[in-house]
Amino acid sequence: MNIKISDVANLPSRFGNFKVKAFKEGQKEHLVIYAKELDEIPVVRVHSECLTGDAIGSLKCDCRDQLEYALSLIGEKGGMVIYLRQEGRNIGLLNKINAYALQDKGLDTVEANHQLGFAADERTYDIVTYILHHFGIKKIKLLTNNPDKINSICDVEIVERLPIIMKSNKYNEDYLDVKRDAMGHLL
Ligand SMILES: Nc1nc2c(ncn2[C@@H]2O[C@H](COP(=O)(O)OP(=O)(O)OP(=O)(O)O)[C@@H](O)[C@H]2O)c(=O)[nH]1
Ligand SMILES: [Zn+2]
């Protein structure tokens, strides 16, 4: 892996005073946000980019609520958010919007991905191991409902899984049902 790593910078935010470090993997620039004192077994949230949710406040998913929950938690109690630039479960923004257009016609999230020629989830997590090793972290408490994330993060011991379940709304109910029923999320 050819990874470029930035210096550490301070990032005061509405969720707390953090440190940030960027990791450039090919064209993808990931951001690691962490509280100043990291525990030996820190709480870690691996968040996948969702421009429509994270920045625009889309109600079609639970991404922004999860991101804000995770940042508030690490702001209060310490830990790390690894913000991965894997937009749309790594099919990219343009394809995700095409998937949304198919969802407007009645397909669910998984069916829409398949119709576009993608797997339901195209993400990989090798960079997570790289980042955690970079910080000397060997054990984590992982904030997730996604068993695929638990199984895909290698060479780091996940001593505990912490759920991250957000209140649903009328626009994301079906999306959350599909995550549970078709993708095996622990919801
Ligand atoms: N292709 C596609 N991606 C989506 C859709 N809705 C949200 N996403 C992307 O899904 C990613 C978030 O992944 P999720 O599967 O919702 O949740 P997760 O982060 O894997 O699981 P948790 O750790 O439990 O939150 C982000 O990259 C979103 O952009 C959709 O309808 N289609
Ligand atoms: Zn989202």
Oligomer designation: single chain
As a percent range, the share of helical residues equals: 25-40%
CATH topology: Rossmann fold
| Fourth CATH level, the homologous superfamily | GTP cyclohydrolase II
Number of helices: 8
Mean pLDDT: 94
Let me know the largest β-sheet. Answer: 8 strands, mixed
Quickly give the structural class: alpha/beta
Order of helices and strands: EEEEEHHEHHHHEHEH
In percent, how much strand structure appears in the residues?
Answer: 25-35%
CATH architecture: 3-Layer(aba) Sandwich
Q: What's the N-to-C terminus distance?
A: 34 Å
Distinct small molecules bound, one entry per kind: guanosine-5'-triphosphate, zinc ion
Overall geometry comes to globular
Unreliable stretches: none
Radius of gyration: 16 Å
Total domain units: 1
Q: Report the top-level CATH class.
A: Alpha Beta
Number of strands: 8
Domain GTP cyclohydrolase II: 9-163
Family: Belongs to the GTP cyclohydrolase II family.
Catalytic activity: GTP + 4 H2O = 2,5-diamino-6-hydroxy-4-(5-phosphoribosylamino)-pyrimidine + formate + 2 phosphate + 3 H(+)
Keywords: GTP-binding, Hydrolase, Metal-binding, Nucleotide-binding, Riboflavin biosynthesis, Zinc
Tell me the layout of helices and strands:
Blueprint: E1 3-5, E2 9-13, E3 16-25, E4 28-35, E5 43-48, H1 51-55, H2 63-77, E6 80-84, H3 87-90, H4 93-104, H5 109-115, H6 126-134, E7 139-143, H7 147-152, E8 157-162, H8 173-181
Parallel strand pairs: 5-6, 5-7, 7-8
Antiparallel strand pairs: 1-3, 2-3, 3-4, 4-6
Helix pairs in contact: 4-5
